[in-house]
Amino acid sequence: MKLSKSIQLAHLLSGSIRDIYCQAISNHLTHDWILNKLKVRVFTDKEYMKAPKWVHNYLSGYKAALLDHLLEEHLHTGRMYKGVLYEKWDDMTEELKEMVRKDMDSVPMATYWNDSMDPF
Length: 120
Description:
The chain is α+β, with helices and mostly antiparallel strands. The protein has two domains: 3-73, no CATH class; 75-113, no CATH class. The protein contains five helices and three strands; from the N terminus they run H-H-H-H-E-E-H-E. The protein has helices spanning 3-27, 31-43, 46-50, 53-73, 94-102; strands spanning 75-81, 84-86, 109-113. A hairpin with a 2-residue loop joins strand 1 and strand 2 (84-86). The protein is elongated, with a radius of gyration of 19 Å.
């Protein structure tokens, strides 16, 4: 693949990646939805399959940067217990702390969108 075509492809597919993340942010979509769309629209593209390794690395890095941005700016993690999200250990009730001490999986950690309680 020629360099100019590789650059065009990287630009085109990075736009697709950005669009997928923008849709996810706007509509509070799940991580599984993002991964599925990335697979369908980017990582199984026949031109992507023929692209040089540097294009793959560039797009993987771009995807990772967008995910980092998403985690920092739009998501939070905590334990949901009786309809309340606890993000810090110090905020948890004694009852919840005791449950977590006995069995961490009894109240699992989860990631939610900042401005709603929609799961990520």
